[in-house]
Amino acid sequence: MDEIFGLIEQEKQRQLDTLELIPSENYVSPAVMKALGSELNNKYSEGYPRKRYYGGNQFVDQLEEMAIEKAKKIFGAEHVNVQPYSGSPANAAVFFALLDIGAKFMGMELSQGGHLTHGSPVSFSGKFFTAVSYGVDRETEMLDYDAIRKLAVKEKPKMIISGFTAYPRKIDFEEFHKIAQEVDAISFADISHIAGLVAGGVHPSPFPFMDVVSTTTHKTLRGPRGAMILCKEGFAKAIDKAVFPLLQGGPHDHAIAAKAIAFEEALQPEFKEYQKQIVRNAKALADALMNNGFRLVSGGTDNHLMLIDLTKNNTTGKEAETLLDRAGITVNKNTIPYDTRKPLDPSGIRLGTPIVTTRGMKEQEMRQIAELIKNVIIDKKDPEKVRENVNGLCADFSAFAW
Ligand SMILES: *Cc1c(COP(=O)(O)O)cnc(C)c1O
Predict the structure, then answer these.
(1) 401 falls in which pLDDT band (50, 70, 90)?
(2) 216 CA to centre of ligand 1 in angstroms
(3) Ligand 1: residue whose CA is nearest its atom 14
(4) Which atom of ligand 1 is the closest one to the Cα of 193?
(5) CA dihedral angle for residue 265, residue 258, residue 222, residue 227, rounded to 10 degrees
(6) Cα(193) to centroid of ligand 1, in Å?
(7) Which residue's alpha carbon is at the smallest distance from atom 6 of ligand 1?
(8) Is 240 a catalytic residue?
(9) Distance separating alpha carbons of residues 258 and 30, to the nearest angstrom
(10) Residue 398's pLDDT band (boundaries 50, 70, 90)?
(11) Which of these, 122, 350, 376, 379, is most buried using a 10 Å CB contact count?
(12) Is the CB of 193 under 6 A from ligand 1?
């Protein structure tokens, strides 16, 4: 057991000592951690509040209802299911609830910023359904709504997915919904990456337009590992049945309680300020990187993330990820739109500001981080030397600025 706790301790120290720039990660509050490590882990509650297949759920029922009410309040949704174990199972529930096997749907191409569950042939979405992919414009590297509309009119999909994992710009959900309406398709937004930004009012909301919305709860929303599905009342029954009993068994009550806590935190005024700072920090980091000689996909960012195209820096995403890791800066290699390289060694890296903002860093620190990244990739300084500066910067900001 000591060995296991020893490794957990080392991971905790790693999170303290290094700059985590992976845009899908965050550091949760001690309150969220406490709920996750609670006795709720011990309970079984198959079913939904007040309709369970097990006894002893009087407190679990109240907790799940609280999580649902808070989520509705944050997003203004008609119906919420807080039971999905994570983002991919939540998306599977949406597909199996609303589409016949084999039905055609549209989603963003994986290599251009879509998620595996939006139609990749290695995912259930591409295996059991017929995916038609759209991409970004070759010149602007941004969404081209006219091109998406034309494709939708030609292909007549039953569902259109918006919401991405590596798209640095704002998404016009109203426009996506209009396109879906024009071709009689269900509009589905997966806001996993930007749920916190939407909750904080710094990204346009998919509500009240979208028919169905899914999101993870552990990214910018800064809650426990997990997900939820929000939808219009007309889809509620089908969604609930797809989550349980079609795809899942007993809900993870400890995670649901932790979601309720994260939602409560998201309703506080400080959360809005946090989300604003995430976006300000991303802009500052993007500007500083461009001033330091890097090319960013689409020329910048409107949200919490950005993609560096390393082509002109004579390096690859894989090399850059490894070098930066040695310097204590954690990023992930990522394809860029129309990448000519392979996904395991693509041309780009993806960076985001949710964690450094949670730690209390501001624009000034973003400029320092851009300088450190330049030191490693452009100036080719010894990563171990750069690491000393990284550790110094981290020491000034406790991992949890709560
Ligand atoms: C992260 C993400 C998911 C998947 O979430 P998991 O919890 O990793 O299964 C789904 N869709 C999008 C857009 C995401 O960014």
Answers:
(1) low
(2) 6
(3) 192
(4) 15
(5) -120
(6) 8
(7) 87
(8) no
(9) 10
(10) confident
(11) 350
(12) yes
Q: Ligand 1 pocket: which of 110, 115, 248 to mutate (most atoms <8 Å of CB)? A: 115
Helix (H) or strand (E) holding 6: helix 2-17
State whether the beta carbon of 24 lies less than 6 angstroms from ligand 1. yes
Q: What pLDDT is recorded for position 106?
A: 98
With beta carbons less than 8 A apart as the criterion, state whether 48 and 65 touch: no
Asked if residues 337 and 346 have their Cβ atoms less than 8 Å apart, the reply is no
Residue that has been written with the tokens 């070759």 in this structure:
138
Q: Is beta strand 19-20 parallel, antiparallel or unpaired with respect to 329-330?
A: parallel
- DSSP-H helix ranges across 209-316: 233-241, 253-266, 269-291
Q: Look at residue 399 and tell me whether its pLDDT is greater than 90.
A: no
Smallest CA-to-CA distance from 68 within 78, 58, 57 is with 78
Give the burial string for 302-338 (b: 16+ CB within 10 Å, else e).
bbbbbbbbbeebebbbbbbbebbeebbbbbbbbbbbe
**Could you report the per-residue pLDDT of 65-76, keeping only the tens digit for each?**
999 999 999 999
Domains of the chain: 30-266 (3.40.640.10), 270-395 (3.90.1150.10)
What average pLDDT does the segment 144-154 reach? 98
375 alpha carbon, distance to own chain's centre: 29
Token couple for 158: 């039953």
pLDDT score, position 50: 97
